[in-house]
## 1
Amino acid sequence: MKLPIILIGFMASGKSSLGKKLARKLNLRFTDLDTEIEKREGISITEIFKNKGEAYFRALETEILQEVLQNKDHVIALGGGAVCHSNNIDLVNGFGLSIYLKKSNAQLLGRLRQNKEERPLVADLNDVELKSLIQEKMNERAVFYEQAHLIIEEDKPKISDLLERIQQLEVEK
Ligand code: S3P
């Protein structure tokens, strides 16, 4: 199996929770890129955006992504914007096996509404604003997400099905 496995997709698409389950099943370690960034800076993602700005965050995101991709025996969950700048999608696809957790804009709205607080791009938005931000960002980002090796559209994918699809990919190569 090509490793590391890298989960990509929009905010609140379920990357971390699926990543943890997949890692447990495969006996791999789980790494969350945002957590690594927070550890490095010693402050939260929200504070990094607030104190240092998004451009600073994006530069750091690429730098730490390059580092974590060196670890083979990992399942890695990336922040929603990570593969959408600096040619990071090519980097990710070159190093590992990428999986896109695809959700509809309506699903994303439902999920993000409940989980906005720690996400600086959406924390202060009302429902109408949130809906248009999802539309706008998905219009820009889909082209990157869709380059993943595997695209998972099921709402609650079963780990066993996911593993089957990963194995199928290897056979097709
Ligand atoms: C971002 C997604 C966040 C985090 C940051 C920016 C984005 O990660 O990296 O707030 O641009 O979509 P999650 O996808 O885990 O929310």
## 2
Amino acid sequence: MLTKTIKDEKEFPKDSTIGSYWITTFGCQMNKADSERMAGTLEKMGYTKADEELQADLVLYNTCTIRDNAEQKVYSFLGRQAKRKHKTPSLKLVVAGCLAQQEGESLLRRVPELDLVMGPQHLNNLENLLGKVDAGNQVAATEETFISEDITNARRESSICGWVNIIYGCNERCSYCVVPSVRGKEQSRYPNAIKSEIQKLANDNFKEVTLLGQNIDAYGRDLPGTTKEGRKENTLTDLLYYIHDVEGIRRIRFATSHPRYFSKRLIQACYELDKVCEHFHIPFQSGNNEILKLMARGYTIDKYKRIIENIRSLMPNASITADAIVAFPGESEGQYRDTLKLISDIGFDQVMTAAYSPRPNTPAAIWHNQISEDVKKERLKEINELVEITSKKRNERYLDNIESILIEGLNPKKSSQIMGRTRTNRLTFVEIPNNSEFNFSLGDEIDVRINEARPFSLTGELCL
Ligand code: SAH
Ligand code: SF4
Ligand code: F3S
């Protein structure tokens, strides 16, 4: 029988409820991690999780604005809640995250039903801000601020795999990207604070951690400390060595990597350190050097290929995933084809693709050579077809292999199957043998023989 361990019940008493809450999270892993911390704060305050969004006393949208469609989605969700507020004036409506930061106070004018608009840097202050709302104010908290060490106990969705933020913000200036303006300047957390959080996760029986940052290789640039040789001491590589001995944690991952800073020393560390998994998410964005220059990415395709070669020379089975943008302003058919060619040449395990979307306060948004919507759609469709074929081909290399799967739960679509991941981050389903004496728990690692490969997942059978 698969037993689920429910955690933290005593830390989040349910008898003193002051209402129910609902959080919807849009966007990236960073937002998911932030939502878990905000849920922790709300539960500490005495809120309980609502069963349904439309019944909650407090609704919080943790928003994303990376592309226009992400932004529009938030507005449509907000419209529904704004209507509900007219019938139920006690409903508290909160918008947090990147769209909140982008729009600031103007969001209160656009959606006057809102009680609180708060940027990602104000997360630790949620309780205080809600106090002001309770006192009858409509509040906007979006000024740039120093993020103090996290004091909230996150209410984590998984009881096995934990997100750990190690660096906030981004100092890059990619010409298409809204993140630096909504997430602010890079701020690294101190290594000892990160290690204590991981230690706490290990004490709570978590088995896997994913270190998070928008540009994770920039970790430590803003921290003091250099070695005798004059090298910076607190890099991501140093951090991996430093946290590796936390007992109980079996897998360590990190994302997102920037090709400009991805060092040989980091690759060597990933190779040497047993717990660091062989999966690298390194967005390339375009397969053409001229477009990369216009994007202000700061590397060439040759440099990108060398990184992948270096990884594969030490870890031939590593999985490599990436992000790519098609139809960047001025991208010619030939330049777009270079991106397709790079995908075929490298043989990515997965590529997250998007058509370029102009964002407020970014240089590329006002260039005159924008690509038409029709061409965007065509390119996106074609690249997605290629990615699907490439991923399926890559996944076929697992067939007949025995892979170690960390059990994360049951397949939500088929409860006779366990769901977990390979070290390379491939989602894998395994039929639970019905006549067996098996007794395993979430967080166990099991050996599985892979017998089916699809573009996005694998299926296998338990090795008895
Ligand atoms: N920090 C990461 C990714 C951040 S945003 C990096 O540097 O790679 C996640 C992805 O969204 C990006 O990798 C990019 O592919 C995509 N993206 C960002 N801005 C975009 C825009 N304006 N239009 C379309 N896609 C965009
Ligand atoms: Fe955006 Fe570039 Fe920063 Fe990534 S590195 S978050 S794409 S500005
Ligand atoms: Fe979106 Fe903000 Fe993440 S814009 S992708 S939620 S950093």
